[in-house]
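Discussion board: Methods & Data

I've been asked by a reviewer to show the raw model output for two of the constructs in my manuscript, not just the figures. I'm not sure how much to include, so I'm pasting the format here to get opinions. Each protein appears as its amino acid sequence followed by a line of discrete structure tokens. Is this the kind of thing reviewers expect to see in a supplement, or should I convert it first? Here is construct A:
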Amino acid sequence: MRVDLFDFELPQDRIALRPVAPRDAAKLLLVEGERLQDRIVRDLPDLLEPGDVLVFNDTRVIPAKLTGYRGDARIGATLHKRLDLRRWQAFIRNAKRLREGDRIDFGSGVAAIAEERHDDGSFTLAFEGEEPVELLLSRAGEMPLPPYIASKRAIDERDLSDYQTMFAANEGAVAAPTAALHFTPELVAALDERGIGRETLTLHVGAGTFLPVKAEDTDEHRMHSEWGQISPETAVRLNEARQQGGRIIGVGTTSLRVLESAADQDGTILPFAADTDIFIKPGYRFRAIDGLITNFHLPKSTLFMLVSALMGRERMLAAYAHAIASHYRFYSYGDSSLLLPEK
């Protein structure tokens, strides 16, 4: 399909630079079949049914954005995929000044060797020393806010908490699973009281999620892989919930991608621990999920293609037009939607 079929006009003032407070006070657009309804995130217990299960991504964002020097050349690096205990693949700013074998000094006693340049222009960075890389990043790194926020304001202390979900446990992401940023202990307690289940999986979100689709046709676009995991126990509980009539609702496109990667052709969710580069676009047959909670995505992005696959492209273009006209806030710190396709 042509990528420009997924384009729409978004006013710059609709891009949220800070989250609302409290988090569950954000707007929520219910898209249920052909119906649109304006609600707030706190209404979720009333919009879901007892027996439904929400699936959260428990990844934790690490301070994966680094700035250093190779000689007198200033080099920026955003880690996006762990390769082993000391090596990460990273997108590089000022990559023309970097060659294989060069040493980058990031300050605070943190340095890495640029081992290998990849076809997409990224590098493998091998960190020096014996300290855990996470400890090195805590000294020299900063939170890797999306470019549409970082280009408009400085990253600050608030982002250290604002850009983590309440479920964050397993370190390794360089982007937050932002749909879950809206959840609070009070909202979770209300969902529990309503009889709505809750499960977690892991997808360490990479910086590739922010990259624009440069191809003119979706068939020419290649996704970056990310590592995900579903435990055997979680898979069993999810399958049992579905067999009993409950709906599986992914909280965020990251959770959805792992669930769909783990499902077999009959929709049974299997244990999973592997990389996934699944690209969901119109024509895809969903197997594992019955709905999705997600923020509002960029024009011509793979994530807007994903929600179009779930609900229909025309339906989502209309929903986004409604959201823009109704002053919903877009992107990572923005408002939310609940997408429930027709059976």
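Construct B, same format:
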Amino acid sequence: MELVDTKEAVGHVLCHDITQIVRGKTKDAVFRKGHIVREEDIPVLLSLGKEHLYVWEQEEGMLHENEAADILREIAQGKFMTATKPKEGKIELIAERDGLLKVDTERLNQINGLGEMMVATLPSGLVVKKGDKLCGTRVIPLVIEKEKMDHARSMIGEEPLLELLPLKQVKYSVITTGSEVFKGRIQDTFTPVLIDKMSEYGCELMEHKILDDNHQEITTTIQEMLKNGAEMILCTGGMSVDPDDKTPLAIKNTGAQIVSYGAPVLPGAMFLLAYTKTRTPILGLPGCVMYAKRTIFDLVLPLLLAEIPVTKEWIADLGNGGLCRNCEVCHFPNCGFWKGV
């Protein structure tokens, strides 16, 4: 720090907050630490009784916190993100569109492990809206070695830490199976739930078929829907291990690759995910999707719409936190049931 005459302080950077106290009215900082003194600030500072100021003593090889924060911003910022102006070594990134936030957590941890700097993000895999805050970057000290910031930049490389992936508004088809629905003994209450969930993401229902428990007919219908251009197929009913539950066999017989039949999630254990050779997802949805607030379907769907490959390993990892607490007031995804990528 360096003590300078206030009248000579233009262009210098304040090392501490300068507070104004007016009894009964205000007690707040008029100038914040890191503020660069301007000509018009001088009368205000003098009116506050500040004849001298502690300012940052510029040294070769050192960066002011705002300059360093901009380097962190550059490291973190992907496309479709707006940066706020630097303030006290802090810059925030704001979403320019709806999408799924993906964070390179390995490289994020490397940055945060260096010390004297930090990047705090929303969880990777979270669906965000335009205008949402995605992350904040901050440099801890008022000044930091340029060499340290250069090291951080070189360590991370060219690719940004954050991506904002678009959610594809797919055209999907639904197959409802079960003799009880096919023969009109009960009403199909499953499909309206799926339409509501898919419409949240702007997806359009192409085709809906109600079939008996005949695995050959289910297989043929899936193949026809794929030929008709379905970008996702949702199958309901027939997902348990009862002898007359034929949906898993029907999906397998289409030639699609089964990623997982079963998931360590409650509700949602009897879930099936498969991909065709052209990477079109086919889902076998358990009955809980029809009546539970949140299920395995809510965890997987955003990744599929963002075209992030859902793997067997990712599904296996859902077990830690995979038990929904079925709270009276649902706060999903702001809870332990939600999983990112």
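Answer (T.O., handling editor elsewhere):
This is acceptable in a supplement if you add a one-line summary per construct. For B, something like: Residues 61 and 92 are 25 Å apart (CA to CA).
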